[in-house]
Amino acid sequence: MNQFNPEQYIPQLSIDSVIFGYRKKQLHVLISKMNFGHNIYTLPGGFISQDQGIDEAALQILKERTGLKDIFLEQYKTFGPADRKNNPILDVLDQDKPTPMPDEQAAVEWFSKRFISIGYYALVDINKVKPQKTDLDESVDWLPIESLPSLIMDHNQMVQEALETLRRNLDEKLIGFNLLPETFTMRELQELYEAVYDKAFARNNFQKKMLSLEVLERLEKKFTGAANKAPYLYRFRR
Amino acid sequence: MNQFNPEQYIPQLSIDSVIFGYRKKQLHVLISKMNFGHNIYTLPGGFISQDQGIDEAALQILKERTGLKDIFLEQYKTFGPADRKNNPILDVLDQDKPTPMPDEQAAVEWFSKRFISIGYYALVDINKVKPQKTDLDESVDWLPIESLPSLIMDHNQMVQEALETLRRNLDEKLIGFNLLPETFTMRELQELYEAVYDKAFARNNFQKKMLSLEVLERLEKKFTGAANKAPYLYRFRR
DNA sequence: ATTTTATTGTCTATAAAGTAGACAATAAAA
DNA sequence: TTTTATTGTCTACTTTATAGACAATAAAAT
Hints:
Two copies of one chain form a homodimer. By secondary structure, chain A is α+β, with helices and mostly antiparallel strands. Helices cover about 30% and strands about 30% of the residues of chain A. Chain A is built from six helices and ten strands; from the N terminus they run ββββαβααββαβααββ. Chain A has helices at about 55-65, 85-95, 105-110, 155-175, 185-195, 205-210, and strands at about 10-25, 25-35, 40, 45-50, 70-80, 115-125, 135-145, 185, 215-220, 230-235. In chain A, strands 1, 2, 3, 4, 5, 6 and 7 form a seven-stranded mixed sheet that branches. Chain A has a three-stranded antiparallel sheet with strand order 8-10-9. In chain A, strand 2 and strand 3 (about 40) form a beta hairpin. In chain A, helix 2 (about 85-95) packs antiparallel against helix 3 (about 105-110). Chain A is elongated. The mean pLDDT of chain A is about 95. The interface of A and B includes residues 54 and 75 of A. Chain A binds a DNA duplex through helix 6. Chains A, B: Keywords: Hydrolase.
C-alpha cells in the first residue's frame, strides 16, 4: 500500500486539521513535530484515499491522531495559492539522508507538485485524547495557541483562520461544550469563552445569558474544599 | 493546450461558482446548458491551472462567463463525497457521438475519476453582465433561484449552501450592494433583502436600520412619474 | 385650481435584549 | 463565632428591535 500513489490517493490535494483542546484557561492546538529535518512542525494532516469522501478522510485522520471517534469536526476553508508547495519536506528528500518514507522516489514525485489543502477544525475534550504518533512524527503535542512555533507552509495562517471560524460559531452553534468534560461549573464555561475570544465577560450577565439558552442542565453542587460557596455543576443538554 | 492534461491542470479537482444576480424582486443564478447530451444543466465551473491559485482560477472563470473583472467573489465550501463523479458527461462521451471536446480519449480519462469541487459564490450587478458561452455551452442564462432545473451532480445542493452562506453574510459583511446598480432607492434595497431571506421586513424599521449603519449616501430624489412622493436615491459609500 | 391616491420619510411608544451595580447566601478557614 | 472568597440572583439602566401613526409629496383625477 503506497501512500504516494495517485491510483490510491488523490494527488495534489491534502487535508489538514486544526484540533482544538482546552486546558489551564488556554486554547491548545495539536501539533506534530516530524521525525526528520530540523524542527519541522505541522498540523495533523493526510491525503484522501480514492474511495473516501473528504469528511470521511478528515475523520480518519482525527481518529489516528487522537484515538477518538466521536468528534466535532467541520470543514472551514480550502487553501490553494499557486506556490503552495511542501518545500521543507522536499528539501529533506533532496538531501539523500534516510527518511521514514517507504518509497523515496514516489515521495519526491508526490511532494514536488503544488498542493491544495482542505482545512478542517475539530473540538475535543483534551483529557480524553492520547496524542498518537504516526511513522513520520517525532512527537505530537498540545501547544498553547498563543505560543505556537513556526509551522510548515501556511499552517500558522490555517490555525488563525480556524480560530476566526471557531469564534464565529461558538455562540451561534453552541459547540463550546465539545471542549469541556462532561460536567463543568459556570466559571469553567466562562473561562473557556474568555480563552476563545481573548476577552473578559461580566460574570452575572454571562450566567444569565447561558441559562437563558436552556441547554444547560443543573446538577449537584461541587464541593472543592475552597473556603467559599460551592458552585453548581452543569451538563450540556442535547 | 489540452484542457484535460494533469501536467497543465490539477486532476480530480474543480471549481464551481454560484453567480448571484438580482432582477424583478428575485434572486437569479447563472446556469449553463451544455451543448451535448440532453438538458444537462450546470453551474459555471472549470479547472485549476497548475500555475494558478484557486482564487485566481475562480476569478478567471467568472471573467470568462460574465465579462466582468471587478467582482465580489468568495469561497464558501468544498464538496467531495467519494462517489462524486460527472456521470452525465461520461455517459455522453461513452456514446461515441461527436462532442465539442478537443481530445475525447483524454476527456474520458479525465472525467472517469471522482472529482472534488471548491465552491465559490459571486455577487454581480445583473445589468452589467452579458453571459458568455464557452465551447461547451449551448446557452448561459439567468434563472430564478426558486425555479432551477435539476442540475448536474450535486450542483443543486451547492446552490442551496451558497444561498445559506449569502444569508449569513449579507447583513454582517454588507455585501448586498454588489447585487444592485450604482444607485438605488430604499425600497429597492429592501426588496433585495426580502428576496434573499424570502421574508418581509417592516419598511419603517428597515430604513432606520440601514441608515444607522452609515454606509449609505443619500443622493437626489428619483422622479419616476408615479403619482406619489418621490423617493431618495442612495449610493453605497465605500 | 383643488382633491384624491399611493408612497415616502420620520416620529413616538412599547418590547426585548444587553450591560452594570448591588447584595444576600454559603463553604471552609481563621 | 467571625472572616474570606466566591456564587447566584436581583434590580436599574442602556441599547436595540418592533409596531403603530401621521404628515409630506408627486402626479393623476376631478
